Amino acid sequence: MEGSLNISDIFGRDVFSDRVMRERLPKSVYQRLRKTVKEGYELDPTIADSVAQAMREWAIENGASHYTHWFQPLNGITAEKHDSFLSAVDSEGKAILEFSGGELVRSETDASSFPSGGLRATFEARGYTVWDCTSPAFLRREGENVTLCIPTAFCSFTGEALDKKTPLLRSMQALSREALRLLRLFGNTSSRSVKPTVGAEQEYFLIDREKYLRRKDLVYTGRTLFGSMPAKGQELDDHYFGVLRSRVAAFMRDVDIELWRLGVTAKTEHNEAAPAQHELACIYDEANLAADHNQLVMEILKKAASRHGLECLLHEKPFEGVNGSGKHNNWSLMTDDGINLMNPGDTPHENLQFLLLLSCILAAVDIHADLLRLSAADVGNDHRLGADEAPPAIISCFIGTQLQEVVKQLIGTGYATNSPRGKNLKTRVNTLPELCADGTDRNRTSPFAFTGNKFEFRMVGSSDSIANANIVLNTIAAEQFRAAAERLEKAAKFDLEVHDLIKELLTEHQRIIFNGNGYSGEWVLEAKRRGLPNYPSMVDSIAALTTEKAVKLFGDFEIYTETELQSRRQVEYEHYAKVINIEARAMINITGKQIIPAVIHYNTRLADSVNKVRSACPDADVSTQTELLLRSSKLLAKMQAARQKLLSDVEDSIRISDPEKRARVYRELVFPDMQALRGPADQLEKIIDKDLWPFPSYGDLLFEVSEP
After folding, report:
1. 7-163, which class in CATH?
2. Which of 175, 177, 259, 506 is deepest in the core (most CB within 10 A)?
């Protein structure tokens, strides 16, 4: 791409940004649109034609020939349908290029071809995409093709949300409304909106594409269904933050440039803990924009990898035995005039507004731990959560020693008189300056950790949309903010009532606070004693969507109707069963067409060798060859038996019509069958000649990202 790199020149070049709108739109149109974007005012439909005309002219000047409504259906990825700007041909045969306000605001698509959980039957196809003006349009470049992409919401003909953007926007609106009520009580009359801000950290693996294509399990499922660990894994901690290989560095530079052009604030990149694993983190943005940008990050990581002869794996656990990949969702609250409401200040014990917001959020997490767990539920994440590499499946909150001391005082008396300060660390090296430590340490085992001026929700899976997590966070926080505002608005003595409320919330919900080691077995027992829910798998957590508590929560804030919740519950059960079914069938095919023939070839060759040696020298010791032959033959028989059981159970399971029952059978029967099949196959990989084994090993994939 560009030779010399100047971020200022590149950043936002392909975005119909606020600056571009200010330059190209009539002043009155720009001001009305900005009020909608920044302050949440209702969109004025009369400005659509002016915006569409300016957007079309800008896009065509930058080489675009087509536009698309870019949306995020319930399958977790993005979707788009491309239309050219060509609208007619005049009498002289000249093309007429148009893009109207109606085409900007709304488009129609086939809703029955996307997951809907029964909201749309096959014969009921109509669905609509609707312009989301809070997320700017952008240009996508694919070689010489340039397309104008317009972020949109997606709904059915009957009005239900069929996407992740619509409920996210609803939750942001609810959160802003209720948070502002609290701010007004504390005397803030200047802030006009409160936006949840999110910074997503994206983990991923990079492997050689040629080797990837030889692994049908990776091609079909995104993870290795077979594979034994090589002699070296991540034991030496020599990959984390290590020097980037030139091929990887070139890839990262390519990704950065493409993201910067799209206005995505790619900030930090480095090698992660596992071999071949890496991370990219972006600067905070409003939750809706952050969710859109994270989708772009995942898309561009995949496309850029292909250009460099690499494959980007976003699965949560592509390799057994080494760390999987997550996506830390850093969540905070920011006013439109730049106040971070999650900043405790230098003396948090004196910051009543912060302490009330903190207490409300802790209460929200405790009350709705099941929903928060569900928001990070994904088939791939089942392999990762609680595996001593990611947070456990039990929701708890880390608040650190500083806030823990403040909370202890508040629970005891209702008032806090001090908060521990960070200390100066002495390096005992004269040439190094003194280091001022933070007021508290961090806890990488905590699912929901306060880290200075934000909460870090560490459970989200690397391939998942961050929309789900933020919908839940925004809504449960809004519920507690509303309850607090309703009580405080009636208070005769505000300061006294605030202290009482903070004490009550912290006392009632202190069980959710845990600053210790979330990986320990003792914590599982302690969490059970505290009454905290534990949902080990995705299937266990899905029912949380439609509890009476959840229906009331989402209904009260108009985030989801009960019908929309029921549909999503069905989508989640169906998704789980379909993914496990694909993985199971892939294992059946790979063992039948690749591994079993390779083992038979090996055994035949070994048996022929034994016979030849015995024929040439009857007294020769062939015990080693015989032992290997017997061992591989036993493992082959064991593998074939496991394969037949898996095949039979898959065929029975797929016939189950009820989505929940089918998902549970896949979890409780088919998934253990898959593990039983993998066991002997991985043992055979350690025996069979490398030249006979039908696909690249873990060592080939993890340690051989060769230079071009």
Report:
1. alpha beta
2. 175
